Amino acid sequence: MSLEKSDMPQYNYSDLIGAGPEMQHVFYMLSQVSITQSTVLIMGETGTGKELIARAIHNASPRRNKLMVKVNCATLPPNLIESELFGHERGSFTGALERRIGKFELANHSTLFLDEIGELPPDLQVKLLRAIQEKEIERIGGKHTIKTDVRIIAATNRNLQKEVAESRFRSDLFYRLNVFPIVLPPLRERKEDIPLLAAHFIDRFARTAGKKNVRLSSMVMKQLNAYNWPGNVRELEHVLERSILLMQGNIIREIHLSSPLSKAENKSKADEDYSRTLAEVEREYILGVLDKCRGKVFGPGGAAEILGLHVSTLNHRIRKLGIHKEHKYFIKVPQH
């Protein structure tokens, strides 16, 4: 039995944006697991909002009156992760000048969010498994076990089943974490949410920048919908923040990338692809409009009017994108 979209209840969370079926399914999953004590494993690409989901679960749970405690397993060196998780006693190793309370103890009667769990070293995977199973931990250098009541929410951008198959992640820990899996869709698979997300970010950043009645031009919205967003929601957020800071007037007429990306000698391949792809999307859209207008730039029915741009702005974009007029059509300037 499957629910039709119209039959599914509509779920909403104040910090989460999504009206499409993919995110409504995620919201449904949240509504089912939040009120329980079950361990949750959140999986999704970088920038999809895994920490927001973890916080939404915690804030709707019986543990919401205590702060959620977070550990990013990817940012700590291996020799410090154990102390971060379980704490240590004074003098237990060189540099341990005083007792340290670990995150498990800090999260007692609350939620412990283990971000980037796939980066946890193998020896600590064993200790984490024991802490989850036995509900007790032992500080480094400690002589006694400490009982803990902690709800675990873990997140990863890795395929943990593949990591298990290739012996990089313990199968017993995976199954212990994978009690209630939630998979977040990438932004390219939920493009119907882009206008909602864009409106949310524009409202936030415009207020911060002291700008009023900010909106997107039709051309920019077309670009946002056409782009593949490898960095997902976080990338969209940062692009709109930059664009608002750099815009003139109250209409965002072009997407702004960080200027160093297009000029730095050592930019990464990902940055190159990102910059090039946006330019291609914009160029293709402008060419399509110009073709529809039979090459007419200004005046009634011209490309500038259709795109919602000033003629000077459109001419600037045409030159920047390497488009020139030949008879009544526009083609790319040959590269020599």
Automatic annotation (TrEMBL):
Gene3D superfamilies: 1.10.8.60, Homeodomain-like, P-loop containing nucleotide triphosphate hydrolases. The lineage of its organism: Bacteria, Pseudomonadati, Bacteroidota, Chitinophagia, Chitinophagales. This is Regulatory protein, Fis family. It comes from Chitinophaga filiformis (Myxococcus filiformis). Keywords: ATP-binding, DNA-binding, Nucleotide-binding, Transcription, Transcription regulation. Residues 16-245 form the Sigma-54 factor interaction domain. One of its GO terms (biological process) is regulation of DNA-templated transcription. PANTHER family: PTS-DEPENDENT DIHYDROXYACETONE KINASE OPERON REGULATORY PROTEIN-RELATED (PTHR32071:SF117), TRANSCRIPTIONAL REGULATORY PROTEIN (PTHR32071). The keyword Transit peptide does not apply. GO terms for molecular function: ATP binding; DNA binding. Coiled coil: none annotated.
